[in-house]
Design goal:
Layout: H1 25-44, H2 47-65, H3 71-77, H4 79-84, E1 95-96, E2 109-113, E3 118-122, E4 127-129, E5 139-140, E6 143-147, E7 153-158
Antiparallel strand pairs: 1-4, 2-3, 4-5, 6-7
Helix pairs in contact: 2-3
Length: 160
């Protein structure tokens, strides 16, 4: 049996842009800065900037899982994603917690993926809770980063 697909699924957006990574103090510092920058965007409620940061990830998810929706449409269609991206606020919705990083960067537990070109801190330091609903479980954004040849840190994916 053989199959022919007329639509091709393009490579992940980071494939041609991500550089090889090594666990160094410089990498740990840059990765922490990437998490801090992302946390500030959430703190500021800057939904436009958050959409730009996550756009390649959410565009791909919208294409593959939601019939071709773009990043904004895809995010708006998911209740928790809509709240976490600041597109919608609910009175008893999730509230961003302080960034959870170890006191010393050497204490960060790193996970490398994508043939050593993607990295994240485990557990995810981006956490939301429901202070008005103590029995409700909070959320994390298990974001994975890559570094470009110019040294910029960008979001590669949101992993489980």
């Amino acid at each position: 049996m053989s199959f022919r697909l007329l639509d091709t699924i393009s490579d992940f957006h980071w494939v041609n842009d991500a550089t090889p990574l090594q666990d160094t103090p410089r990498l740990r510092h840059g990765l922490r800065q990437a998490y801090e920058r992302l946390h500030r965007l959430y703190e500021d409620g800057n939904s436009d900037a958050l959409l730009r940061e996550f756009e390649p990830v959410w565009d791909r998810a919208g294409l593959l899982m939601a019939g071709g929706k773009n990043a904004r449409e895809y995010t708006a269609s998911l209740p928790i994603a809509s709240q976490l991206a600041g597109l919608r606020q609910e009175p008893n919705g999730p509230q961003l917690q302080p960034l959870r990083l170890a006191d010393d960067p050497n204490g960060d537990s790193l996970e490398f993926m994508g043939n050593g070109r993607l990295v994240r801190i485990l557990p995810s330091p981006l956490h939301w809770s429901y202070p008005n609903q103590p029995n409700k479980e909070g959320h994390t954004v298990p974001v994975v980063f890559y570094r470009t040849a110019s040294g910029e840190w960008r979001i590669a994916t949101v992993s489980a």
